[in-house]
Amino acid sequence: ELKVEQNPLFLSMQEGKNYTIYCNYSTTSDRLYWYRQDPGKSLESLFVLLSNGAVKQEGRLMASLDTKARLSTLHITAAVHDLSATYFCAGGPMEYGNKLVFGAGTILRVKS
Amino acid sequence: NAGVMQNPRHLVRRRGQEARLRCSPMKGHSHVYWYRQLPEEGLKFMVYLQKENIIDESGMPKERFSAEFPKEGPSILRIQQVVRGDSAAYFCASSQDESNQPQHFGDGTRLSIL
User: How close is the nearest chain B Cα to the Cα of A100, in Å?
Assistant: First the structure.
């Protein structure tokens, strides 16, 4: 059964700094998603990664996928306060159909 | 608003009562998913439905929980005889098809059991 682990679970960083959130998964996952959730709000889709070596960037966030290492990363460049949120990765092999398995989430707090 | 609509946003029930959570998918989406989020945890898959069919209910508790997505109207997640442990945020998501496009989530229903 697929298990998805994120680390760190909590990240406090200063504005302007860089950091990376890691998402490890235990068995094959044919797709990997990153979502953002603000407190009390829904999940917003950030990235969809479908192949080994995929890299996607949007603003200060960049996501990558290494299927051989079963690892996805979300890199934050020059953090700003508006990036404070909880970030989830989720995946699933094709045999799961559309069922997604989520990590526990990383709470990011960017301090001014 | 063409997004996934869930109601109510907040629901309070006493132990033993029934809870009904509703979800209208995005326009043009015929696939609906329900997830449960316990405090400070990730989302846990519950059930995946298409119109009038349950496709995957592997995450649904065997008792008291049921889900439907009728031909007309919203998808309903029903919890009978609620217990304190049912307190959670329940999210609905929808997708257009079975492709790898991301699921779009509603704002969730926060269920509190007194």
Answer: 7
SS (H, E, C) A36-97: EECCCCCEEEEEEECCCCCEEEECCEEEEEECCCCEEEEEECCCCHHHCEEEEEEECCHHHC
Question: What average pLDDT does the structure give for chain B?
Answer: 93
What is the distance in angstroms between the Cα of A35 and the nearest Cα belonging to chain B?
9
Do the chains contact at A99 and B58, CB–CB below 8 Å?
A: yes
CA distance linking residue B64 with residue B111, whole number of Å: 15
* CA B30 from centroid of its chain's CA atoms: 14
A97 with B98: CB under 8 angstroms?
yes
Write out pLDDT tens, residues A63-82. Answer: 999 999 999 999 999 999 99
Residue B84, helix vs strand vs coil: helix
Which pLDDT does position B84 carry in this prediction?
94
Listed as ranges, residues in chain B with pLDDT below 50 are: none
